[in-house]
Amino acid sequence: MEQLKKKVISFIDSIKGEIFEIADEIYKNPELGNQEFKASKLLKEKINGYGFLVNEVEGLPTAFLAQKKGKKPGPKVALLAEYDALPEIGHACGHNLIAAASFGAAAALGALDEELFGEVMLVGSPAEETDGAKVILVERGIFNDVDAAMMVHPGNRTTVYTTSLAIEPLEFTYTGKAAHAAAAPHLGINALDAVILLFNGINALRQQLRPDARIHGIITEGGYTPNIIPERAVARFYVRAKEKKYMLEVKEKVIACAKGAEVATGAKLSYRNFELGFDNLVTNKTMAETFKANLKELGYHDISDKEEGVGSTDMGNVSQVVPSIHPHIAIAEEDIAPHSLEFLKAAGSERGKEAAVLAAKALAMTAVDIMTKEELLKKIKEEFKKTVEIS
């Protein structure tokens, strides 16, 4: 087993230039969710070159599944690649590094050939920042025969015990009646007033919520000119909480606020999910400990014990159906926040690319542990059954 780890480390070192190339190409060509045609094409071509069978995913043109089976029976491990960028600010979340790291780990495991136990699958999963494809992949049963799923996300600290909040994206539309705001205001129904009351209702609601709940929104439509009473107004919100069950409770309270604004103003309400919702992330601690041990074996020791996530990710949905980890690797100082210009710079830096290589090695080593140690896999699955029931 130690010999296999040495082989994957050596292989990743031999393709370091290719890992850097992938990180750079995706970084320099940022693409929004479900539009990542260049990134997807690049990754598919690269991994196919290492003997992986690449399949498209119906209805998700920038998603893909790349698989390689070993000669020996064993577990199936999935490595998740993300490669979508943010609007205006590009790869300020570092998804270019996620793609490079997962590619490197998958290629290294595939290169074991005769010595590969089980199967490795590189999952190209678009649009994590918006309409997360992992939600759809989970619903289609892509992970039903997977024993463990992994990915590494760049951050401002290194930690293996990550969590995330469940999220529901809600859009509220109010339809009123236009009228001259000065000459005949009594003939109008102000849809913008309804949206303002909705915001005020939610602001009052926050006092009665648990500390882990988050509600934040914007007005996307609110009228065109001050002298016409707005006939249509639209607001979008993200509703989040530590567990999905409580998040859904908060969601119903938010909807109640929206209905109250409808009654108060007379503007007709309609609402919908404008994106897919994400489940909360459940980190498998046994897997996380294994990943942590491999980081240390690689000489990396600056690891935080725990981090409570306050963002959301569609990796949460994966973690509800298969044992999963989503560790963070530091590419920037702690005072540099993701989704910032400073983090964008870090995602394209030498430090960022070196972190992707480190992540690839730790992912591949952890996969080797899972594929070769029956007792470890048994422990991972036993923990998964307990923790998912709780979540």
TrEMBL record:
Similarity comment: family membership: Belongs to the peptidase M20A family.
Alphabetical list of InterPro entries matching this protein: Amidohydrolase, Bact_exopeptidase_dim_dom, Peptidase_M20, Peptidase_M20/M20A_hydrolases, Peptidase_M20_dimer, Xaa-Arg_dipeptidase
One MF annotation (Gene Ontology) recorded for this entry: para-aminobenzoyl-glutamate hydrolase activity
Organism this protein belongs to: Thermoanaerobacter wiegelii Rt8.B1
This protein's UniProt keywords: Hydrolase
Record-given protein name: Peptidase M20 domain-containing protein 2
Xref: CDD domains: M20_ACY1L2-like
Biological processes per GO annotation: folic acid catabolic process
Domain of life: Bacteria
Cellular component terms (Gene Ontology): cytoplasm
Residues in Peptidase M20 dimerisation domain copies: 172-259
